[in-house]
Amino acid sequence: MTKRKIAFLTISLVALVLLLGGSVFGQAAAPKNNIYRYLSIFTEVFELVRNNYVEPVSGDQLMDGAFAGVTDAIDEFSYYVPPAQMAAYRNFVDVEDNGIGLIITKRFGYGFVISAIEGSPAAKAGIERGDFIEKIDGQPTQKLSVWQIKERLKSARPMKLSVIRGGQTKRDEFTVQQAAFHPLKLETKQMGSVAYIKVPYFEKGTAQQLRDALANLRKNNTKKLIIDVRGNAGGDVDEAITAADELLPSGEITSLEGRTVEAKKWTADRATDYDGDLEVLTDPSTASGAEIFASAIHGNARGKLIGLTTYGKSIVQKFIPLPSGGGVFMTVAHYTTPEQKPIKEGGIRPDVTVDLSVQSIHDPNAKGGAAEAREDLILEKALSMFGEKTVVTEQKKAA
Q: pTM for the full model?
């Protein structure tokens, strides 16, 4: 059965979302009369589809589609694993960047690139944030759940990825192979009177690297600083929290909230390592710990955020086995801004938004391997706000 048909059947069984909301996800139970009403509607739709659809549909197919619809209804990062797939899922190890540097989710039926980590095989090949992965070694991602996409991206051999890119009708082809590229070091440089620090990923040791870099700024009496967390979409949340603390003399950094987890709160509790002016660069490839970092700076009025709204993925997830033999991987908690707003609800909006629409359409005539130089408009804007006129371009490897 095609994906479109499964989607149709799932929508037809939408009443099950409401029915299972209480039993699977721990929500407050609906009144008994409502439960029976949902059961009645579900039974009617189930029998109608099974007996009248143009071709035979098994009960298992319908139920798997309905259960998947439950997780699709809550967020893009949660998913249902049917009993038939559990044997394969038990062998699945969720490496966040898949060994090739892609932080991915699933959107509009395809694998979607939140970020291609700087310095990773994927980034070096030319894959960018916002790309849709249509096929992995010829297999369509539309027929795969997000965990299956991640599993296939962990292949030790070279993989051929077919990518759909904004503004283009043709598919770009990339060959990517796993390589060791961690740990990732901070990039530091001076742009006139402004210090620039690029934090590509939060992992063990990142906060200490930032502390050392800030100590050098203090030693040199530098009073203008740009921290770039664009492309930083995963890693160790604790490192991100510690990094934010290095810049905050006081105030709340973040809190963790969820109905089935212990609530936590992090507050800045030591002197800052840098007390000069600060700007933080963000865009939709800023996610997870980097969003917590940006949110802490923004929410405590410590500095200005420049760029675009972050992705909205500062969450905690857990796999819950079901008596049926399947399971649900779901969001059980979220991190908040200092104002107690869940970061996942819309991400973090910058103080100054930079329009990148002029760069959103790629050159369809670009040759494979050609280097496409373009202005880094977000960094240019940040520098101009500090009174610097340095021209900045970034090299992107075109497909």
A: 0.84
